[in-house]
């Protein structure tokens, strides 16, 4: 089985499922290409499956593929205990406008989802940096 996926999914979501799959099908070899963020660099027709976060730009999907939503997850803010928003049980995207954010890399599907949500609310937070090294 040939799989391509983003690093986030490869690290945090697939291992449990792939372990169960291998236990149920020990004679099937699994090959994974993880860290995929530029889908145009991969021949999707050479794969059996690919996993990606919503918001990513995917080139033409082969007709033999079907997009099936798999997991719904949350995007959460991680704040220093002394941050002005840290003691609130919840806050809105508009509350983030006056604070710097550390972003995921520009090609991240999670980042694209967050950017779209901020754009929809017309929120422009300060950019402190990115997780790209």
UniProtKB/TrEMBL annotation:
Signal peptide: none annotated. Pfam families: LysR_substrate. One of its GO terms (molecular function) is transcription cis-regulatory region binding. The keyword Transcription applies. Keywords: Transcription, Transcription regulation. Residues 2-125 form the LysR substrate-binding domain. The keyword Transcription applies. GO terms for biological process: regulation of DNA-templated transcription. It comes from the Bacteria. InterPro entries: LysR_subst-bd. Belongs to the LysR transcriptional regulatory family. PANTHER family: HTH-TYPE TRANSCRIPTIONAL REGULATOR, HTH-TYPE TRANSCRIPTIONAL REGULATOR CYSL. This is Transcriptional regulator, LysR family. It comes from Acidithiobacillus caldus (strain SM-1). The lineage of its organism: Bacteria, Pseudomonadati, Pseudomonadota, Acidithiobacillia, Acidithiobacillales.
């Amino acid at each position: 089985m040939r799989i391509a996926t983003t690093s986030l999914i490869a690290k945090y979501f697939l291992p449990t499922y792939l372990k169960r799959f291998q236990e149920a099908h020990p004679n099937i070899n699994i090959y994974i290409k993880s860290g995929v963020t530029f889908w145009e660099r991969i021949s999707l027709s050479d794969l059996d499956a690919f996993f990606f976060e919503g918001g990513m730009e995917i080139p033409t999907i082969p007709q033999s593929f079907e997009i099936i939503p798999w997991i719904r997850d949350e995007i959460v803010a991680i704040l220093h205990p002394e941050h002005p928003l840290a003691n609130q049980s919840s806050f809105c995207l508009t509350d983030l406008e006056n604070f710097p954010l550390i972003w995921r890399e520009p090609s991240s599907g999670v980042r694209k989802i967050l950017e779209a949500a901020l754009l929809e609310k017309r929120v422009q937070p300060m950019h402190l940096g990115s997780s790209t090294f």
